[in-house]
Amino acid sequence: MKRGAGFFLLSLLLLFLQVAVLPRLLPDHLKPDLLLLVVAYLGLNQSWLRGGLCSWYLGSLEDVFAGSDFGLFGITFLLIFLMVKTGAGRFNTENPLLLLLLAFFVTMVKGILLSILLLLFADAGRQWPLLLHIILPEAVLNTLFALLFLRCLPRRRGERRSRPQNLSRGLPS
Amino acid sequence: MFDLLRKYRTVLLAAVMVLAALLLYSQNLRRAEERTNLFERLILQIMAPAQSGLKTAIDRIVGIWDRYLWLVEAEEDNLLLREENRRLRSELGALQELRLTNERLSKLLDFRDRQALTALPAQVITEDATSWFRTVMIDKGSDAGIREGMPVVVAEGVAGRIIRTAPNQARVLLITDASSAVATLIQRNRSRGVCRGSGTGLTFEFALREEDIEVGDQIITSGHGGVFPKGLPIGTVVRVEREEYGMFQQVEVAPAVDFSRLEEVLVLLEENP
User: Fold this and answer.
1) Which pLDDT value is given to residue B107?
2) Which chain A residues contact residue B199 at CB under 8 A?
3) Whose C-alpha in A36, A83, A96, B253 is 20 to 30 A from the C-alpha of B119?
4) Across-strand partners of B204?
5) Could you give the ipTM of this predicted complex?
6) Within 13 A of B2's CA, how many CA atoms are on the CB side?
7) Which residue in chain B has the smallest CA separation from A20?
8) CA atoms within 13 A on the CB side of B70
9) Per-residue pLDDT at A117 exceeds 80
10) For A49-107, what is each residue's pLDDT tens digit?
């Protein structure tokens, strides 16, 4: 319960930074996707059910403040989580460099998924040039913020390292 | 059966979640009216105090800095402003006479569109959460009479339209967003077209090849889209390209509004009875 409330408050804080604080500090129309970084982190550390639901929630939260159709980021974040989770078993998830690389690639994947979804469900013909124009700077920016994000997590990662690997971690609790 | 379910439960779980998310998204796409759902209202209401609090705090800090600390060129500015004030006062008298004449002529022509609309001032509090879309949040919502679809303007021209409302906040889809389209016409020759957003600027679409469009032409709303009243400025033509083949010409438009400095807007409410 306490962790759930903590996650809810953290998500609101990150969203608040994303929509109200960082746009005042960064150049026009360039902002990091902090919630996407959390989704990448969840993909490496959480179970299918809990991580999936949390990613969907984070996407829905972003939907409240982005774009014009509710649900677009919800499904995009969920798909990104599933992709990261599927691949997580093949990598050393304790390596901090992995989150940096992931931050870059999930931003690229987000752009591609958004384009596909918009193409399938809405008129995305005009979104393409904008997506291509923004995708690379945003991926670089997200990687930089992932670096900051990692700086905030050393203690927790240290705790995790000392714990034995729980093979049934994937089961919903 | 249960063994099979247990074996493939991860795949099934993922499939169920994706399907549910997809259904929610498509359901929202099809909804024509009242597009703001309960989740959105809840989050907007939770976030509202923090957003307005931050804006007030930043405005105060900037105010203290400008008024009490950064006074390097205050005396020089003061002299210049006094001189400018004298000049402007003399111009004001002439302009007031012109305004009165203009008002009389407008009445004569029965040009009442603008006067028939009530405008509600609102402040922009946040931008879109991503780099891909062009929306902003304003500090007035359904409690102030704002509803989805209402036009949003500034002194320079059209800014966008309301797409979501909560009691104390509303989200505006700017005309520069790629999903935005406004029915417009060229002021000089009344050629009709649709202005679509391209992220930073606008394009004037469906302009036939043979139509006379020049750089510098002013684009205004046609009033046919059902959202914006007729005659509001949209932008200025900055590039015209006619290819050898094809029915239409490509026209680029610079928006009349500087969206990077959007702070206060007017929401046009229902027409007066």
Assistant:
1) 54
2) 29, 129-130, 133
3) B253
4) B195, B251
5) 0.75
6) 0
7) B126
8) 6
9) yes
10) 999 999 999 999 999 888 778 888 999 999 999 999 998 888 777 777 888 889 999 99
**Chain B positions in Cβ-Cβ contact with residue A15 (cut-off 8 Å):** 47, 129
**Token duo for residue A104:** 């870059």
Q: How far is B109 from chain A (nearest CA, A)?
A: 39
Q: How confident is the model at residue B237 (pLDDT cuts 50, 70, 90)?
A: very high
Q: How far is A15 from chain B (nearest CA, A)?
A: 7
User: Where do we find the tokens 């099809």?
Assistant: B30
Partner-chain contact A64 B40, CB within 8 Å: yes
Count each helix (H run) and each strand (E run) in chain A, helices first: 8, 0
Set of chain A residues whose Cβ sits within 8 Å of the Cβ of B43: 12, 61, 64
Structure token digits, residue B219: 């684009």
Q: Are B229 and B211 in contact (CB under 8 A)?
A: no
What token pair was written down for B72? 């390097």
In Å, how far are A67, A87, A96, A161, A165 from A154, measured between CA atoms? Answer: 34, 23, 9, 10, 18
Q: Is B105 exposed, middle or buried (0-12, 13-18, 19+ CB in 10 A)?
A: exposed
